Each structure stands twice: as C-alpha cells, then as structure tokens.
TrEMBL record:
InterPro entries assigned: TPR-like_helical_dom_sf (IPR011990)
Taxonomic path: Bacteria, Bacillati, Actinomycetota, Actinomycetes, Kitasatosporales
Name of the featured protein: Tetratricopeptide repeat protein
Superkingdom assignment: Bacteria
Ranges of compositional bias, category Basic and acidic residues: 249-266
Location of region: Disordered: 249-268
Amino acid sequence: MKIFNRARQRPSASWRQTTDRAFTLIGNGRFEDAGALLVRAADLEPWLSDSWFNLALLHKFRRDWEQARAAGLRAVALLDRSTGAPDWWNLGIAATALQDWALARRSWQAYGLRLAPGEGPVSLDFGTTPVRLSPEGESEVVWGRRLDPARVEVLSIPLPSSGRRWGEVVLHDGSPHGERVADGVPYPVFDEIELWAPSPVPTFVVLLQAGTEQDRDALERLVSEAGYAAEDWTSSVRLLCRDCSESRMPADDGHSEHHDPHDDGQLGHLSHRSAGALWLPERECGLAAPADLVGLLLDRWVAGNRAGRAYRDLEEVC
C-alpha cells in the first residue's frame, strides 16, 4: 500500500528520535520548541498517522483548536483501523471546543460510540463523574454531570480558588487521572482542559449556625428547590496531596467528597460528615444563587427554626 507515493513502513530512527525529543520538551512546558520538532517529524514521515496525531496533541495542549482540528483530520485520514483509535477521540475534543458538531458526531461514532441521529450538540447519558478543575494550578476535584465524551457540567460548588462556578460547563480530557469510589463504584477523574461555557450564577460563602445536621440539610434542600445550590464545605472539603488525589480514593458518604484542593506539602483530610464525627454547629457553606436571592433564601431558612439557625459574614467570592 502506498500513501503520498511512499510505501508504508516503520518510522525511521530520525523520526523516533525527533519525536522523543519533542515530547521531552512538552513535558518541560516548551511547546514552541516541541512544535518545531513535531513539524520536522511530520516532514520526515508525512504518511504516518502518528506524525499528525502528535501534532494534534500538541495543539490540544496549547488550546489551539483550529490547528488541532486540522492535524487531527490528517491523522484520521491515514488510520489503518476503522474504530477505537485515540486519533478520533482527540479530534472529537477539538471539534467540541470549536462547536463543530457535525465533526464531533462523526468523531465519536468513528471511535465506536453509538449516537442517536441528529444535529447540534451531542447529548449522551453518561451520568455523574468527578472532574479536576484547574489541574495545572491549585486543583480541585468536584462532581459534575457528563454531557458528552468531552464536556462536564459542574454540579458541586467549587471553592473560589479554582475560579470556577456551579453550573459551568468545562471541556475535559479523555485520559483519567485517578479514581473516586462512591457506593462501591469506581469513577474516573478527568482533568479539565478549559472553560467551555461560563455560569452567570455567583458563588457566595457564609458562616452558618446550624444546630443539627437536619438544619444544614434544610438549607441545602431549600436552595435546591429554588433551582440553585448550597453546599456545606465544612463537610465536603478534603485536603489531599497530589499523589493521593491522582490515585484511587474513596468518596466519603457517597458523592459528598467534592473537593480536593492540592498542595504537595498538604497531607491529611478535613471532613465532619464521616460516621461518628462530632457535629459542629458553625459551618462554612458555599451558596450558588443570584445576588438578589441569596439573602432572601437564608432569611427564609432562619425563619424555619430561629432557635437553631443563624448566619453571618455573607460574601460573594467568585
């Protein structure tokens, strides 16, 4: 078989050495230098799908989606298998980033996923999944609803350090880093690539006086019924080192392990929702609701049990 008038064969030693050097540079964050080497590798072996897959991967790292799509299309054109190639998955991510829904659908189907006929955004019932926000900074693992193979809608209330909000949709990578086990079921943790759709709903932090767990639950239920979210950060936040976060970790109380802010020197857990823990009435709570509604919701919550409920220090943080 000939491609570009050249017989298919194993890549040359020069191609392998050039590609290896490029990925060493990528690991050091030197994307520009790596790009020059990968272009050279593609010139050496233009018939090889890996040449274009590697370039598409680099452009994904750089968030250059137009170039990622162009290189990805060349990669899939040279594939020698019909389904399951990672080239299609990366092309699907690039197409989703660009909202090129026709190409996204084609990519997921070529990878091997079954899609209902239609146009526009892909909609699949992938259930809930943990996603790592801001993986290159002060990262945080939250739970979200997986809309399709590359997008997650954030259902937790992220800490303000992540710069993310409840209800935002983030583009995520396909290779998991770590697992969370909830109710005996392992869930892969996907890394965020970038913000895909922002949320207009701000995040507030407030200090609650909740006499019992039922008082805390009443606020979360009240805000949820209004169409927004409240989360007891005193219970749901756990601090993990990076190695722990990227390993297989249990999620306390089902899906209550929402956050894993990282610090390589920070070890241990913070949680007060685990079985047998002493209830502390003062709770730090995150609230995701419009500014003109959040105070009204808190006042309504206090009115339900004035003897056991109060709040103070309400502040918008993201």
